[in-house]
Backbone:
């Protein structure tokens, strides 16, 4: 085996080579002093990047940050937030013209316009709720659900419900790549039963739901919805609403707060 | 209605509990939510949790420890200003480092700051006379690295620092820089090779 290139050494150091190739490199390094020396140098360079700077890192930023916050809070809000009157006026006119054009001229595009807006503007009530999902694999490992999961993973959930007007009911369900709906809370598997949202705690930062749940999902993207409402809703009503929505789109329930997670189910 | 068989009562091993936990045990999102609710100590906890790494990242990006403190401080202040709009989606670190990189960029661009750098570096040099030989050597090695990082393009430098200093995953870096994971990896290896060449590698 010839000497290993520098790029491959870096790939080896950060675990970006296959197991077979890593074994070959291990064998080569055991016999090649020059490659081993080079590898040590590269490893040292990577480690140097993360070497603490004791002088700099002994600083406590809290007092200075607090001072900045205090100074900021003493500034009159008008100065920080208000725009010059002319800008506001022009903006209002533009919005009014756009609204009239869309409302009267392109009725078939109204829904599209609203959907696009809802994708970029976060409704105020959504900021006070959150859903966290955790994977629980067969071998017992747990972890926060992020970009991917296995089909046979159990899921656990915790929710946040804060704000001046906290919500009273919650539903959690997922829609898989084929559009099939999988319910977590309330539990629902047969068409005969039509359960309603479950009551939830108010003013909680993180309330864990005490069940682990598994479904048979299609491989591909999976959207997990949490629907926080003031009144209980029936599963059938929600399923009827989401049947016409695009994946990940906000559910049109008035006064609701929502948090939609997206992950990918591995084949 | 009976429980379907795919739903199993969990054994109450708490993944998370409510706010009766000490602040230090809450995750970043929880601290942000508490801070938004007016709990100043929650935000202090968040700052203290991340300030070491944030300062180190700012130091490597700016190449000047003197400026790193200002950039880190302002970045945390920006995070505070974002409390109202912050969404607790488990991505605090990506969010924070995006804010920090922007702040570092602004610090670098500020012409006035350059004068300040000279003054502060001069002051730092004066402190050096009291340093032990070991500390001086460590500082020299660090300065050599920072100079080398400074010669990389911004794109390569940011990826290296986010990966090896901030300790972010490829997915998190992809979120911070808004580029695909493949691009993150490609920039990382190019950056490492270039850095090695600058720092005196013989093989390239």
Residues:
């Amino acid at each position: 085996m010839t000497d290993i290139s520098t790029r491959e050494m870096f790939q080896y150091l950060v675990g970006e080579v296959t197991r077979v190739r890593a074994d070959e490199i291990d064998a080569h390094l055991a016999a090649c002093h020059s490659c081993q020396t080079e590898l040590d140098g590269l490893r040292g360079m990577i480690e140097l990047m993360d070497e603490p700077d004791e002088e700099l890192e002994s600083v406590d930023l809290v007092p200075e940050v607090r001072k900045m916050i205090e100074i900021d809070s003493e500034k009159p809000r008008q100065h920080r937030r208000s725009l010059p009157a002319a800008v506001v006026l022009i903006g209002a006119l533009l919005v009014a013209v756009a609204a009239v054009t869309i409302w009267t001229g392109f009725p078939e595009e109204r829904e599209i316009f609203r959907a696009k807006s809802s994708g970029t503007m976060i409704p105020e009530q959504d900021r006070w709720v959150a859903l966290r999902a955790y994977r629980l694999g067969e071998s017992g490992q747990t972890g926060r659900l992020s970009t991917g999961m296995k089909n046979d993973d159990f899921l656990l959930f915790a929710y946040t419900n804060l704000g001046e007007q906290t919500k009273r009911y919650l539903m959690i369900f997922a829609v898989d790549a084929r559009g099939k709906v999988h319910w977590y809370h309330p539990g629902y598997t047969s068409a005969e039963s039509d359960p309603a949202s479950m009551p939830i705690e108010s003013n909680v930062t993180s309330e864990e739901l005490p069940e682990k749940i598994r479904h048979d999902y299609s491989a591909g993207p999976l959207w997990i919805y949490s629907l926080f409402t003031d009144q209980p809703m029936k599963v059938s009503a929600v399923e009827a609403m989401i049947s016409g929505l695009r994946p990940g789109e906000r559910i049109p329930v008035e006064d609701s707060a929502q948090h939609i997670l997206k992950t990918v189910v591995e084949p | 209605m009976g429980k379907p068989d795919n739903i199993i009562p969990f054994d109450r091993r708490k993944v998370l509990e409510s706010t009766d936990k000490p602040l230090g045990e809450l995750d970043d999102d929880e601290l942000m939510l508490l801070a938004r609710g007016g709990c100043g100590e929650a935000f202090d906890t968040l700052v203290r949790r991340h300030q070491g790494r944030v300062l180190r990242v700012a130091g490597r990006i700016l190449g000047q420890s003197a400026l790193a403190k200002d950039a880190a401080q302002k970045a945390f202040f920006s995070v505070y200003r974002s409390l109202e709009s912050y969404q607790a989606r488990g991505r605090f670190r990506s969010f924070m480092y995006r804010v920090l990189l922007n702040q570092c960029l602004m610090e670098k661009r500020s012409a006035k700051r350059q004068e300040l750098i000279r003054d502060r570096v001069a002051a730092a040099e004066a402190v050096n006379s009291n340093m032990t030989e070991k500390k001086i050597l460590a500082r020299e090695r660090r300065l050599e690295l920072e100079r080398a990082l400074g010669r990389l393009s911004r794109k390569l430098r940011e990826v290296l620092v986010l990966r090896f200093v901030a300790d972010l995953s490829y997915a998190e870096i992809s979120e911070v820089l808004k580029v695909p994971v493949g691009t993150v990896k490609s920039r990382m290896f190019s950056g490492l090779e270039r850095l090695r060449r600058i720092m005196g590698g013989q093989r390239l």
Observations:
- Chain A touches chain B through 65 residues (CB under 8 Å).
